Description:
Layout (H helix, E strand, L loop, with lengths): L1 H11 L37 H15 L2 H26 L9
Amino acid sequence: xSEELEVTQLQxxxxxxxEMPVQEPVQEPVKYDPNKKYTxxxxxxxxxxGAEFGIILNSLRAQLATEEAARILLANRANNTVExxxxxxxxxxxxxxxxxx
Length: 101
């Protein structure tokens, strides 16, 4: 009978068990995948160090120093000139908008 009393007393007594903190699942860091497409907003800021800036600058300078780049840049200047002449001619009324036929 004394065993039953002990069990009953244990069941009725309030046992204070400390709550275990809930651990959030550990989130894996995002890894860059060059095969995926990414997006960013126009006001996002990217920071590069001096070495990275030097590589970009020297690479652009090397490309722009080639004969092919000189031809492309000259063609771009010629295109801009033609567009400006075309715009002035449209605005002055020399060139008229084509009508759909």
